[in-house]
Every structure is written in structure tokens, then in C-alpha cells.
Task: structure prediction
Amino acid sequence: MHGRLLVAPTLLVVGGVVVLPMAAVLVLSVQDLRLIEVRSLSLGDLGLTFENFARVLSGPGFWAAVRTTVVYAVLTTAGSLAAGLMVALALRRPFPGRGAVRALMLVPYALPVVAGTTIWTTLLNPQYGAVNEIGRRFLGWEAPVSFLTLGEAEVAGVPVPVALFVVVAFEVWKSFPLVFLFVTARLQAVPREVEEAAVVDGASPVQVFRHVLLPQLAGVLGVLAVLRFIWTFQNFNDVYLLTGGAGGTEVVAVRVYQELAVRADVGTAAALGVLMALALSLPLAGYLRAVYRGRL
Amino acid sequence: MEARALAVLRVAVIAGAAAAAAGPLLYGVVLSVRPFASVVADPLALPSPAGADLSAYPRALAGEEDGGFGLARFMRNSLAVAGWTAVLAVACSVLGAYAAVRLRFFGRDAVGGFFLAVYLFPGIVLAVPLFVLLGRAGLAGSLPGLVLVYMAQTVPVALYMLRGYLRAVPAGVEEAAEVDGCNRLQVIVRVVLPMALPGIAATALYVFLIAWNEYLFALLFLVGDQERWTVSLGVARLADFAVPAPVLMAGSIAITVPVVAGFLLAQRLLVSGLAAGAEKG
Result:
């Protein structure tokens, strides 16, 4: 009894502001509802229509947005995992100043997202941004590149989706510190003896990594992969602040915002949200299962 | 041979990562102390120590009536919103975390799994019904409405972090207090809270930082009312107007300073707490 009493305030808040909305989003997704109609809405007006889902699924650019979202989530997950792992391994053995370097690695992660995107947009600005200036002065670029709106550019004959590449790079930059932090923590728990035994037996550093360290890290890397995928799949802030969805970076989260705030269509926004939640339920269930099996 | 290549690679990775991690922030700082005209003329130049121009900061901070961009007001708004969120979220989750660590009750595991699921649920999906529901409740444009939303977003992670810190309090001490005649609430207030205080402070700070940085809900709820803008919304909106780059950079640095200070103050505690409960973002 005591236990449930103590959890009650927490449950009340989360119930009121998360669970109730979760139920509401389901109800809203089957209404034909505009934002202005919400004010005068009463329970009796609620209907049942699957029109929103049909409209969302057949809407122009929907499947392109789905593809963009998946590409974005997969690339940033893989990128931040690789970068975080590399940095953690490089900083594993002590050297003078390691503490300071470690603290430095957390900068992108600690920076408010708006500050980070504002600085990056300025860095990439076509008129006075440092990247374009370096490109023109040292790399022989003939014209400035509008990194944040350019859908596709030819680099040595290969088409490159520039804006998408920028939002992926930003997200890798922003989230590799978290991977670095977790891998570092896990590395500290790796028993020294096994590794030393492998070295004594003549294993090269790469072999030690492959056969001793990697199996130890597999659990934490797997969990991080699922978590990063879930979070980048639903990411709105970073993409919206960098490009506003231009240049082929329109992810599904940005579409939800546009349906809601720009087109004021509550029904389709909710339907899109429900589809997103459905798409994420599989990796989410996998993650919860891993937690309960005690892997995190 | 392999060892040598790896040693070179190691130095390269460290140098590259350090430059990538700190470079953009450094660039922002440098740009914020240069006059805009000189930035346009020569984007890569460094200001001489004597020629540093700090005027972008007061311009970003001052109110519109003084020809500034109102950042000081946005900071006051964010301070209030993030402060209240931190206090209320932690007060709420201390009780819940204590129950999760010390007490056996029916549905304990279900509650734990439920919070984890809530924590992972897409924020953008919740934004739709919250926008509608708070609008109907008349809270859409208000800072207390925003506090409520932020609490729900942060309570799960606060609970997760606090659970780790509370677990470190030895149960024997609590039992001794109970033998001395304390009831459950007294045990929590007099024994558990003081011993877990560093962890609670770190959690509160962490919640504060999440609320300070939040952008999506601030955008949805407050965009029409410039008086109530928070720092994230303020700086992002300024970027849409033709605000000179140094002022924009000064604004970005100004909203970062409290975050960096907080991180430095509680680095060790935060890192161990983070490692205990993964972070969303």
C-alpha cells in the first residue's frame, strides 16, 4: 500500500500529461478535425473515420519522407556508434591531459541544441561562413555551396545529397559523446587478466579488440544502437532548426509539425503520429526485453 | 608495424575528435567578439586581443526598447520554467524512486516498465494531443502549462537516475532510524534525503538543463507571444530575422554559459547518473 501511495504523485503527472495524450492521439487520429474546431468540440461530435490515414499514406512525399527518416536514423546511429567507440578506445590508456580531453568530448552533447544549430548554420553560411571561405580559398571551389538547402550535388561524378549529409553529420557530432561515455564506462569493467593473457599469447592489438573487447562491448553497443535509432527516428528539433525540412531532409517528425502548426489539420497530424509510434513499437519492445533480461 | 600504425591512428583520432568537439563552440565565441563588417570582409580572421568587440553581448541581452533583442528576458523566462520543472519533477520522483528501491508492492515492475516506455515514446507524437488538450484547458500560451509538459518529459528520467542514487543509501541506516521510532516519511526526510543529496542535486540540475534546452514544445505553445519566449525559442527565432551573425553567436554563447557552468559543477555526479539511466536526445 505504502509503495503505491508514494508512486502516486509521479503516476498522476505522467498519467495526466503522457498517458491521457497517448489515448487522445488515438482518438484524434480518427477524427476529421481542424485546429479551429477544437475549441467548440464536445464528446458528442466525435466520429470515426480512417480518412486521415488514407490521406497521410497517399499524401505527396510521404514515402520519400519515410525513406529519408530511415536513412537519417540508420546513418546517424551507425556514425555515432563508430565515432564514439573509436574515441573511447583512443582515450582508454591514460596520458597527461586525458581528463581535460574527456571533458572536451562532452561539449557537443552539453550544448543546447539551438546554440549548436545556430553555430553550425553560421559555419555553413554561403556568404560569410568559415566552411565556404576555406573551400574557396584553399580547395578551389568556384561558387559557395548552400549546404542547408542543396538537395543534390555532383562530387567527382557521384551525386551526393548535401543537406541530408549535413543533418546526419550534425547528429553524429551531437550524439557521439553519449556513446563515448557508455563505452568508456563499460571498458572500465572489462577484466584485465583476459586481455593480458591474450597479449602474452601473442595476439595483436586488433585481434585483442576483435576477440576480447568487442564481445564484452556487444551488449552495450546493441542497446545504444536501439536507443539511438529510436531517438533519431523521432528527431524533430535538429532537422527543423538546421534546414526546416529543405533539400530532401524532410523527416516524418517535421511532417507531423507541418500538418499540425502550418496546415492546422489535427486529424492528419495525429494519424501521422500514430503511424510513427507503431513503427517504433518494434525496436521499443526489443529494447524493453533487453532491459528485463538484465543486459542494461 | 601494426602497433605503430595504431599509435599514429590513436593520436589522429584524439586530435580530430577534440577539434571536432570543441571547434564549433570556439568558432562561435570568436565570431561573437568580432564586428559584423569584419566578419563579412574576412570570415576566417581572428580578432586581435585588443580589437575584441564585446558589444554583441549587451545588444543581444538588452530589451527591444533599448535596441536589443530581449535575450535577458528570455533567460528569465527559461530560468523560471526550468527552475520550477526541476523542483517539481524531483519532488515528485524522489517518492517514486524510493518506493521503487525499498518497497515491494504489487505492480512494481509494471510501473518501472511503464516509465521506461513513456521515456522512449516520441515527443513529437505527444505534441499533437498536448497542443489540443492544453489549448482547451486554456494553458497553451502559459509558462505553467509548459512546466507541466516538461515535468512529464523529465519525471521518467529523474526517476531512473534517482533510483540509482537511492540504491546506494545503506538499508541498515534506515532500519536503525525505524528502530529509533521514525515512521516511513520521517525516515525519508531525515535519513534518505540528506544521504542522497548530491545525487538529488545532480538529478535536479539535469532536469533543469533538459528544460532549459527544450525547443519543440516552446515553439508550439509560445511562438505567438514574444513576451514569454524561452531562450531556445528566442535564439532560434532571432536566426529567422536578419540579425547580424555576431549577435546571434553572442546569444548562442550566452544561453550555453549556464549549461556549461552546471556541467562543470556537477560533472562527476552527472556522468555517473547518466551512465545509470540513458539520456534522451
Summary: Chain A has a mean pLDDT of 85.
